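Before the break, one more example. Copy the sequence into your notebook; we will annotate it together after we see the structure.
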Amino acid sequence: MKYLLFVSVAAALLSCKKEDPKLGDAPTADDAQFSVTVSAANPNIIDFASNNQSIQCRWDFGNGSDAQGNNVSATYPYAGTYTVTLTVFNNGGSRSSSQDITIDQDDLSLLNNPIYNKLTGGTSGPGFKTWYIDSVSSGHMGVGPDPESALGPVPEWWAAGPGDKGGCGLYDDRYVFSIDAFGFDMITNGDVYVSNELQANFPGSFENLGDFTAPFADRMGESWLLTQGTDDILSISGDAFLGFYTGLQEYRILELSDTTMSLQYDHHAGGLHWYLLLKTE
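Here is what the structure looks like once it is written out:
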């Protein structure tokens, strides 16, 4: 009797067991193909369309920018050959394909963007600007909650007073933004200031006013990228960065004039927003 009861319970459990979910087929090579069309408005603006209009798409335009969507456009101010890569995704996996496109002539009019002009001086100016932390202003470095409180994007938890972080390797750093090929140089004068949670990534670092000063050579020949949308996001390539290092290299532009820039950026572990004020030389 006990044996029959055991069998009945086991059978009931087996009948209730859920089957493992089955993944679908991975995208095919054809799914990852795309068409390339020169825009009627400008030969330096290229329109791209995925073959499969119902699949998730991620694009790398080969010019330092990317996008998502089935039908997208990219702008190429400078002549040259660019490798464009489309990666498509579904529940079964992903697949990529690439094509080279050639832009015959420069069109610097495409660089006439208000943010480009303020950040670099633009094509009608010097074409580059050098920025630095505005150490004499209150709030030149600070931190607040993520997500923001009702106060908005402000360093409500702590804001540095004038000169509070002197001698930490922060105030003598310089950041050069160029319009030519969107170049970026980080001039450190030998050291930088990094979060105490990240000091292990910087051999030779030492504690200094609550965080760590770390040896760090100049980072030259990097690039910057502006992504515009609801927020204007400034990204830095390689392992270069701006100001106090928290593990990330993307900065939300809160305010930008010809001489000042206010930025918000995240903490590598989340939960915090950091803030920077910069000026031009």
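The radius of gyration is 25 Å. The longest strand covers residues 80-90. Try to locate both features in your own notes.
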